[in-house]
Write a structure and sequence with these properties.
single chain, about 250 residues, alpha/beta, Rossmann fold, 7-stranded parallel β-sheet, 9 helices, 7 strands, about 50% helix, binds NADPH dihydro-nicotinamide-adenine-dinucleotide phosphate, oxidoreductase, NAD(P)-bd_dom_sf, SDR_fam
């Protein structure tokens, strides 16, 4: 018990690798899952057990401030103080702007950007009072360079790093670091669902010559959440194989 880390969207493609990396770091890990997916989360948890990992699963709707407050309260009561928060939950609702409806805009902003406020607001003051905290926000290369057909997602992910830079300054004196990780194309289900010829064109543009792995991203998260990583704050770490640099 203790040294608690929360990963939102923890049962997803990248979230799973993050949970394992944080557990390897000696943390008590909570994979927070979307409330409607309780059965899936329990099956996920059982699968982790067979791999030798004991990961707690708790429900949260990251778009709902009250749900985030309830999650953190329950975790702090049952497991102990939250030391690490990884804001990883996210969705896409792609469309070119002339076809993007308000529902798609609102859903992506709520799930990818407002969620970061909703969760961070619950833990930030407590971390500051305890003089230790590690917050990592998962953005995207598409928030850095913009992406055709993703005005909502690009705006949300760019906003995430603005949040990171502001809150990093507020946490710095109290041992709370806040950083962004911006993955490029990672070989999760979402990316593997892209037609093979299109995927080959994407890979051809990646200097490293391959898609990223969930472990590539998870290792970066674990690096930033390490007890010793206190001098890195407000940064945006690129995990994109050299695809985009600035
Ligand atoms: P997944 O879809 O596998 O994971 C996203 C997770 O977020 C899912 O577990 C999903 O739960 C959860 N989630 C969605 N909405 C909510 C909500 N309202 N409340 C709580 N949880 C929610 O995607 P990835 O693992 O690929 O992506 C993880 C993060 O990495 C995202 O922020 C994504 O934007 C970012 N990213 C991914 C890249 C990639 O190549 N895969 C590249 C760049 C960035 P459920 O499925 O049960 O709804």
């Amino acid at each position: 018990m203790g040294k608690v880390a929360i990963v939102t969207g923890g049962t997803g493609g990248l979230g799973t690798a993050m949970c394992l990396a944080l557990a390897d770091q000696g943390r008590t890990v909570v994979a927070a899952y979307y409330p409607a997916e309780a059965e899936k989360a329990r099956a996920w948890q059982a699968e982790r057990k067979t791999e030798g990992y004991d990961i707690a699963v708790y429900p949260v709707d990251v778009t709902d401030f009250a749900s985030c407050a309830a999650l953190v309260e329950q975790i702090e009561t049952e497991l102990g103080p939250v030391e690490v928060l990884v804001n990883n939950a996210g969705i896409t609702r792609d469309a070119v702007l002339k076809k993007m409806d308000k529902t798609a805009w609102d859903a992506v902003i709520a799930t990818n950007l407002s969620s970061v406020f909703n969760m961070t607001r619950q833990v930030f003051e407590k971390m500051a009072a305890r003089r230790f905290g590690r917050i990592v926000n998962i953005a995207s290369v598409n928030g850095q360079k913009g992406q055709f057909g993703q005005a909502n997602y690009s705006a949300a992910k760019a906003g995430v790093h603005g949040f990171t830079m502001a809150v990093a300054q507020e946490g710095a004196r109290n041992g709370v670091t806040v950083n962004t990780v911006s993955p490029g194309y990672i070989g999760t289900e979402m990316v593997m669902a892209i037609a093979e010829d299109v995927r080959a064109k994407i890979v051809a543009q990646i200097p490293v010559g391959r898609l990223g792995t969930p472990q590539d991203v998870a290792r970066t998260v674990a690096f930033l959440t390490d007890d010793d990583a206190g001098y890195i704050t407000g940064a945006d770490l690129y995990v994109n194989g050299g695809l985009y640099l600035h």
